[in-house]
Each structure stands twice: as structure tokens, then as C-alpha cells.
Amino acid sequence: MARFSLILLISFCAALWNNSKAQSKIDSLLPTRGFCITAPKAQKIDDFIKFIQEELAPRQVNTLILRVDYNYQFESHPELIDPEALAKKDVKKLVKVCQKNNISIIPQINLLGHQSWASTTTNLLKVYPEFDETPAVKMPEKYVWPNPDGLYCKSYCPLHPGVHKVVFELVDEICEVFESEAFHAGMDEVFYIGDDKCPRCSGRDKAELFAGEVNEIRNHLALKNRKLWIWGDRLIDGKTTGIGMWEASFNNTHRAIDLIAKDVTICDWHYERPDQTAVYFAIKGLNVITCPWRMPKFAVAQTQDMVKFRQSATSTMKQHFQGIMQTVWSSAESFLDEFYGRNSNKVAEENTSANCFRAMFTEINRLDK
């Protein structure tokens, strides 16, 4: 009996050692293996938890960014809540399953930009129109791009004296309920900043305004030892690189890269081609994560690039190449329908977020062997 127990103990220790060895290798290759998606609606929580358990955890995903925005029953600002928003008990279900599977949750609320979409003003500016950077620009009944107002998404004014009290109360509450050590502020595709008609921002340097807002958010989070994550497009010069106005900046915010705190994590997204701008962010001393979306072949190339960057970099630079993260830009419900093949009437396509997700993690698994 004692001999049998010893054999079991040795087998158990060997299994732990092998698992630790495998984990150590993948952590060395790609410290961050992320998945970013809109937070599910309350009635679909259990479906999403099943996906976490059966798909994310086995693929060794260790970071989950949930774009929450106003899909939570905020106690600090109930006037901003979406209909059918997540309750605290729903969030705690997500927290529990992620903690069980060693997945860090990072909630996101879009700050600065993305305060409207198409013809709809989102909750912050709808309730607090005084925060609008461009109140003279009216929302169209039918949205088209391009348009005479240059309207893509509205921004709030970063210098409005009342805006940070509201948004920071939201940030603190969402970080508390998700028990998170980091917060994602979005801050991508900011086209309206330093508007000529804004009484506070007119004439100011757009790079300084953008950097000022990044640092303001970062410093607030630091009070409770939390870290800031943002998308990286506004920190790339779209003209010099030829990357363009969507995945990079045409309004001179790119110079903010030298003005922001070095402990801000950059989510470097490129969806139409696998541009290697992660090197640029790392050279600037910023931690960077490469983010694909719907092109499987690009996701494979971006995964290979990130591993190559880490393997070929100096010890100082290596630490900044943090990994890779699949992004999804449909609702969680639509993605799960696509992933599980529930859209039987939809024509099969190669370039989808579900196929990209599978290709990226298949490549990670291949590299990990």
C-alpha cells in the first residue's frame, strides 16, 4: 500500500512538473495571450462562461478584455446604464470562472473618443451633453462617411472641469466589481480633439491634449495600483508610415508617444496588413501587445513576428514585447453564434474573427511544442 501511494505521489509530482514546464515555455514565448470582446448580455452569461471554460482556458488564454462601457448596473451613475445591463452577480460569475482558470479580466470603458457611433450618441454625451468636444456637430439622421463635418465618432472634451469626476467614478466602480488590476480606456480613432471651436481646447497642441488625457487616467488608476491599457493607433504617424488615418493618426496626436507614462500598455491593432509597429512601441520603452481581428493568415504572421521579436531582442527590449490578443468587434452573442456554427443561413467566409481566433491559437500551440 505504501509503495502504491509512493507511485501515485511520484506520478502526481511528474504531472505537475510537466505542466509547469509547458506553462513556462509558452509564458516565455508569449507572456500575454489575450482575447478581447464586448461583454455579454446578462441573459447570455452562462453561454459565455461555457466558452471561457471550454475554449479560452484550454488554449491557455490568460487575459480577457471585456468591453463593458455602460453594460453594467452602475451604482455611482445609474443614469448612464444600458437597458438589461449586467448585475453585480453576473459579473461575479465571470470573475469566478476566470480566477479558476488563471485568466485576468480587464474591463474597458471607451474614454475620450468613441462617444457616439453612426447616428447614435452614446450614454455619456447623451446624459451630459456639456462634455461634448464638438457640440456644434449635430448627429445625422442617416450617417455616411466621409461627411462635411468629418464626423466619425464624437469625443468628450478632456479639459471640461466636470468630465473626470464622472468617468473616474465609473472606472473605479467597474474595476472594483471585476477585481481587476488594470483598466482599458480604449482611446482609439480619436478624430475630434483640440477642436477650433472648443472654448477650452482651441489652439492647443493635439499631442499634448491626448497625452494629458492618457496621463490623467493613468495617474488616477495608479492611486489604487492599477495599470492603464489603451489602443495604440493614435500614437503612430499615419502620414510618414503610410498606414493611414484609421490605424494611425493624421491629426498629429502621434507625438504623444514621447509624452505619456512608460507603464501604459499599448494594444497595437492592425487588421488589413500585419504591420510591425510593435517594434516602434518597444523602442519607445512601452509594453506592447499585437492585436489581429479577422484575417487568419495575418494573425499567424503576427504571432510569429511577436515570438521572433522576443527571441531576437536584447534583454532590455524583450520585456516590452508582451504577446498577442485576438480582438472581436461584433457582440459576444454574434461571435458565439459564428464560433459554434449557429448561423446556418450565413455564407461561409474565410476572413472571420472566429477563424482568426482558431488560426492564431493553432499557431501558438504549434510554436509551443
Automatic annotation (TrEMBL):
It catalyses: Hydrolysis of terminal non-reducing N-acetyl-D-hexosamine residues in N-acetyl-beta-D-hexosaminides. It is an enzyme of class 3 (hydrolase). Keywords: Hydrolase. The keyword Lyase does not apply. Coiled coil: none annotated. Its EC number is 3.2.1.52. SUPFAM superfamilies: (Trans)glycosidases. Pfam families: Glyco_hydro_20. InterPro entries: Beta_hexosaminidase_sua/sub (IPR025705), GH (IPR017853), Glyco_hydro_20_cat (IPR015883). Belongs to the glycosyl hydrolase 20 family. This is beta-N-acetylhexosaminidase. It comes from Arcicella aquatica.
